[in-house]
Amino acid sequence: MPAVFSDPVWRKPNTAAAFQSELSAGGTLDAVIVGGGIMGLSTALHAARAGLSVQVLDAGAIGQGASGLNGGQVIPGLKYDPEWLVRHFGKERGEALVDFAASTADAVFDLIRDEKLEVPFTRNGWIQAAHTETALKAAANRDRQWRTRGADVELLGRTEIAAMTGARGYLGGWLDRRAGVIDPLSYTAELARIAASAGAKIAERQKVVKLGREVGLWRVSTQGGAELRAKSVVLATNAYTDGLLPGLAQTIVPLHSFQIATVPLPAELASMILPGGQAVSDSRRILIYYRKSADSRLVLGGRGRMALPSSAADWAHLERALLRLYPVLEGITIEKRWFGRVAMTPDHLPHLHEPEKGLLAVAGCQGRGVGLMSALGKRVANYLASSDARQLPFPLTPIRPIPFHAFRQIGVAATITWYRMLDAFER
Predict the structure, then answer these.
(1) Do residues 376 and 80 make contact, with C-beta atoms less than 8 angstroms apart?
(2) Which residues, by range, are in coiled-coil regions (predicted)?
(3) Which of 64, 173, 235, 358 has minimal CB crowding within 10 Å?
(4) Could you report the per-residue pLDDT of 36-91, keeping only the tens digit for each?
(5) Rounded distance, CA 375 to CA 126, Å?
(6) Successive 10-residue mean pLDDT values, the chain, 427 residues
(7) d(C-alpha 100, C-alpha 97), whole Å
(8) How far apart are CA 406 and CA 408, in angstroms?
(9) Are the C-beta atoms of 78 and 101 separated by less than 8 Å?
(10) How far is it, in rounded angstroms, from Cα 379 to Cα 374?
């Protein structure tokens, strides 16, 4: 693939050199973690600090997947509002889950602060922008629910959202000041560095091809011929899940998230567009999301084609969205284009599975993976250390493949096309 189609605006920090790829030699580990993204590295960090011996195995390079290629929006909460979570999970678990969801952005920003991570960030909030009256009513309902729980949130009218975004076409929206933005590649690299410093071993380009069960242990085999033994295995591959655990890949729908970045904006334009540095996601069926980078580029993303991109034209829908929101950017060069893969579940909730004792699988970021997986990694590490399922915010559920999964991608592609057409009429 030409480099122009895999060239994110994000960059690893200078401290990234402190991380060295390392593979355990012999002995029995407490845990092998398959997948070196935010979920796997957060789990490794907290498990190592709890005194566990940990090995992370990643099929590629750290930061090469969606953890390093996402939009860097750190958003607390889940796709569902607090009242729905309490109704769905019951009062005790539901309220605990609401508290967990409220804390996910804190997990990221507290770590950056406490560990002095070299990660560019701004924590001035996230705006959910409403382009229809229906979306504005939903925003008001969300605002009411979180406000009653003491969250620092605010309902925005047309004037306020126009001033905060500089964009056209919004009727109002909702501001969640708990949120913010980071450089996700820097964050992922720094997670690897501090996890390694805590004692976790992290090996790149070690694709796991087989799991075997022995008496009280798991045997983990890699494509390169390495074999490790561990008391527990955590599958943290998310959208890159393959057939390693039968049926798991069929529980998620992997989607491509495409992004574009302008050249650094001139000062007069940068002062008009997102002057407060907030992140934005809109209310369209096929939503777009955007923010400014540390060097004043406008970074905008959204769903892309299901197949791998073949030309710059595959990002054209994002360029049209950019000019719809900001006509003043006509003629500003789009300098970078890239994409990553995200995992969605049919119920829009993360799934935790433990089909056999000591084998834990986590799947489904739902577009909020930076905060969600950072916080969930700590809980999974606590579970590994204690075997207490109460440490897990989500219930352990059976692996249930999506019916007719092989045809799901075709259906999703058709749905995206249909929704994009509907969105076009709702200008």
Answers:
(1) no
(2) none
(3) 358
(4) 999 999 999 999 999 999 999 999 999 998 899 999 999 999 999 999 999 999 99
(5) 18
(6) 66 76 89 97 98 97 92 95 97 97 98 97 97 94 97 97 96 98 97 96 96 93 95 94 90 89 97 97 85 97 84 92 96 94 89 96 88 97 96 95 63 44 47
(7) 5
(8) 6
(9) yes
(10) 9
| Gap between the Cα atoms of 259 and 38, Å rounded | 19
Residue 367: closest CA among 310, 301, 423: 301
The residues, ordered by sequence, that sit 6+ positions from 41 with a Cβ below 8 Å of its Cβ are 56, 62, 67, 188, 191, 192, 195, 202, 377
Domains and CATH numbers, the chain: 3-125+178-405 (3.50.50.60), 126-177 (no CATH)
Decide: 342 and 254 in contact? Cβ < 8 Å.
Answer: yes
- Bridge partner list, 356: 359
At 117, the amino acid letter reads L
pLDDT in tens, 300-309: 999 887 778 8
Cα(223)–Cα(151) distance, integer angstroms: 47
Please give the model's pTM, rounded to 2 decimal places: 0.92
Q: Residue 166: in which H helix or E strand, if any?
A: none
The residue count for the chain:
427
Q: Exposed, middle or buried, 321 (CB in 10 Å: 0-12/13-18/19+)?
A: buried
DSSP symbols for 357-416 = TTEEEEE--TT-HHHHHHHHHHHHHHHHHH--GGG-SS-B----PPTTHHHHHHHHHHHH
